[in-house]
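Slack export, channel: ligand-projects

TW: morning all. Re-posting the request from yesterday since it got buried. We need the structure predicted with the small molecule present, not the apo form. The ligand is zinc ion; the SMILES is in the block with the sequence. No rush, but it would help planning for next week.
GE: picking it up
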Amino acid sequence: MSRQPCLTCGQSIGGHARTGVIRQLAAMLVRTNHYPKVYSLLNQLPLCATCISRIPFLHDPWCMVCGRHMLVNSRGTQAICGDCSGFPEQLQITNRSTIRYDDWAKNLIGVYKYRGDERLMQLFSTLLLIAWYRHYDQQGIELITYVPLHDQRLRERGFNQTELLAEAVGRKLGLPVRKLLTRQKNTTKLSQQTGKQSRMVSMNDAFLPAHATGDPATYDEVPRISAAPGKATVPAIMLIDDIYTTGATIRSCAQTLRKIPALREARILSLTVCRS
Ligand SMILES: [Zn+2]
Ligand SMILES: [Zn+2]
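GE: finished. pasting the full token output, ligand included:
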């Protein structure tokens, strides 16, 4: 166990209480044979028992499209929330998130985005892996990609926090991570946008397939995922981002990914740390 103090409160991380908290939480998060995996992931979190028990994990029932927690589930059928049912089926991109975007998450994501703290990266990539074992392990995902930053923003910040998360998740799962998209519009920061409508408009055509801009991405490998022998005929790829708010970013990315010939029919599943 880490000798470093708890990332959020500074107290010592160890102690018997922590094991009990983690056991209980793992049993609540997964009821399958993924329990040992999820237990081990929770144990790797750089947090003490008290802070682990404060993590705002999402619980079922959830919207089968966007993964948000829903208070009421319709009897016997899988429910879709009001926001998602407003979109035609081809625009309903499956998303699953690990935690609610509450003040705790907002504060930590904010620090991570602008400082790229290594331990926060470990925290968020571990949270993403927990959601993977809860939702996506059986989905036949072969490739991971991520929401890119605009080049100008990347230069200012020096790193893309989402790319780092995707790489960490890919390493743990043994899956390739590829840059498949570039951002052509330097969209207004999320925090400066007012209203759902303006966010959706600003996301129209915000992305391009990476190869279309001459980006030296490893795009060439994509066609192989659908051609590999013994693989499902419909390729499944996972798109990683930090926060799912209206889903406008994810939908815009998915539409652009489908312009890549090998991914025209692909199942695109998004995995995000937070669901606001
Ligand atoms: Zn703590
Ligand atoms: Zn929904």
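GE: first-pass observations. Residues 1-54 form one domain. The pocket of zinc ion (ligand 2) is lined by residues 63, 65-66, 68, 80-81, 83-84 (CB under 6 Å).
TW: perfect, thank you
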